[in-house]
Design brief:
It is a single chain. By secondary structure, this protein is mainly alpha-helical. The protein contains 16 helices and no strands. The relative contact order is 0.21.
Length: about 350
């Protein structure tokens, strides 16, 4: 009985229900479109698990999502809604790309320089909003939305500067120098049959473990969570709430900036002019919600989302719209959001069964 109760109270149980419901609803839309769900889902799963290189591409897609998921999850746990991970991701990517092009150093120095600078850029971008919040009382959601667009247009402006713009035209920057790339050694990339295999996933997992330790095992984490649970109570206990908010936003911004660096230095190798928001920051909200705002949970939810993004890009082969992945992920979030209803229903059912 206790085991059954623990399962029914587990976030993982309701997340799995939400994922299953998302696939069912996605199948309904496929049927309406006249496409066999079996064929579409078969192609989706084959594109993820069919070959070892597909799994490595899944890891590549998942790496920046884990970082932005960690960024949002960390802020959730500390009582701040970081909807600005998109802008922090963009300025991190822009900083890493600019230094990767303009600075010529040995790889052992160049890579850490680009990564640290990207994290610092994301942190500063987030801290500006934090200062506006604690000093002027401006709500962080409004500021973050504004700063997302500022980062968007700033990136497009810098990409078109002659000093980093791709020679011969085009709407992208030059390629970053090889000394700044996060790629695996060439031998490993050939063995994996994946030209973009990189250290991003290792960095993402390491970051998740560090964030888990900070939140669960340190005094800093305790203070940040206390402010998140009840800022007035934390203030009464002698915790500086404003300082905690700034600390939380700084760390959150740094994580999103690292995601931008991993995307540029690992996968793309250049920064393109945006036609619209890339969405990594907003997808990080989905990753955080699926992972129940747990740093370790963000690893698995990021892998799931990365797999769906990569596998979904192959659905056009069977003439299925890739947008079905967005429908599935949207339904997953919807069912996670209303999971409390299922908790109540299962609790009532358990009481009746006990009687």
């Amino acid at each position: 009985m206790n085991k059954k109760k623990s399962i029914l109270e587990s976030n993982v149980f309701y997340t799995l229900i939400a994922i299953g419901a998302g696939f069912v609803i996605g199948a309904v839309f496929l049927l309406i479109a006249g496409i066999s769900p079996a064929v579409a889902y078969g192609k989706l799963f084959n594109s993820i698990f069919g070959k070892p290189k597909y799994l490595f591409w899944t890891l590549i897609y998942a790496s920046p999502l884990i970082f932005t998921g960690l960024s949002v999850a960390f802020s959730f746990r500390t009582g701040v809604f970081n909807i600005g991970a998109e802008g922090q991701f963009v300025v991190g990517a822009l900083t890493a790309c600019s230094l990767g092009i303009l600075v010529d150093l040995p790889a052992v120095i160049h890579v850490p320089l680009c990564i640290i600078a990207a994290a610092a850029a994301g942190m500063i971008w987030s801290l500006i909003v934090g200062i506006l919040k604690v000093k002027r009382g401006i709500h962080e959601v409004l500021s973050f939305i504004m700063f997302n667009w500022i980062a968007f247009y700033l990136s497009n402006y810098v990409v078109n500067l002659a000093v980093i713009h791709k020679e011969g035209g085009g709407e992208a920057s030059k390629d970053v120098l090889d000394s700044a790339r996060l790629l695996f050694p060439e031998g490993l990339r050939k063995a994996f049959d994946c030209s973009a295999a990189n250290w991003g996933i290792v960095m993402a997992i390491l970051a998740a473990v560090i964030i888990w330790v900070i939140i669960e095992k340190t005094t800093l984490g305790y203070k940040l969570k206390a402010v998140g649970f009840n800022s007035n109570g934390a203030l009464y206990a002698g915790i500086n709430a404003d300082r905690s908010v700034l600390t939380a936003l700084g760390i959150s911004g740094a994580l999103a900036g690292l995601g931008g660096a991993v995307q540029i230095l690992g996968m793309s190798g250049r920064l393109s002019q945006f036609a619209g928001q890339e969405g990594f920051g907003f997808e990080g909200i989905t990753v955080a919600l699926i992972g129940s705002s747990s740093p370790i949970g963000c690893i698995f939810s990021g892998l799931f989302y990365g797999a769906m993004k990569y596998g979904g890009s192959k659905l056009s082969i069977v003439k299925a719209p890739s947008e079905v992945v967005d429908i599935i992920m949207g339904c997953v979030i919807l069912f996670i959001a209303i999971s409390q209803i299922f908790r109540v229903l299962f609790a009532r059912f358990g009481k009746k069964e006990g009687k």
